[in-house]
Amino acid sequence: MKKIFVSLFIIFIAFITTGSGYVGTLPDIEAEFSYLRKEISEKSSAPYSIEELDKQNEKELKPIPREDNNYVDIIIKKDKTTKYFNDVNSVIIILEKLRACLNNNKDIQKFNAIVSNLIDNVEYIRIEYKDKPESAYLSYTRLIALSQEARETANFRTQGLVYEKYIPYTSENNKYTKENLQNKLDSLLVNVNETLFILKNLD
Q1: CB-neighbour burial class of residue 126 (10 A; exposed 0-12, middle 13-18, buried 19+)
Q2: Are the C-beta atoms of residues 114 and 85 closer than 8 Å to each other?
Q3: Which DSSP symbol is given to 83?
Q4: Of 20, 86, 87, 123, which one has the greatest count of Cβ atoms within 10 A?
Q5: Residues whose CB is less than 8 angstroms from the CB of residue 139 and which lie 6 or more positions away in sequence, other chains included
Q6: 48-57, pLDDT tens digit by residue?
């Protein structure tokens, strides 16, 4: 009988409390944690506004000189100069052969063949880069001048062989003397060495 009474009491209590929730007041969470929000906000906020950062950058960063054509063409577009360097390297090989020929006093056929190869390569460079920034390079102008000098020296040497049969060596009208030819060859060698130095030190 006692067990039945206890069971009925539990059922009665359950029936009364069914559907009801917590009765009372909840703590004010907003107020309790507001100090944390303030600390996080202060830490995450930027020290400068966008406008202030722009002004700071203007003072510290050096502006790119985009009005400078050399800067744009050489620095920004420097990958385009790789072809020029490759073309110049081809001429370096020819000039090394020409220098060896001049130092070893090779025969005229060998000399003329190397000079002809030089003239062809330099003419290609002249046409390819005449309207481009590379045309202002010292290497470019020196190659044009050297090619012209090599052509004149080769012509002088060839004509000297033709006319030496008809013009006496002692004649005042004979400009194709061995001394004059050697002076031209020596001058060409000096300029070949100087040009090689310039070409090998391209940046």
Answers
A1: middle
A2: no
A3: H
A4: 87
A5: 88, 195, 198, 199, 202
A6: 454 554 455 4
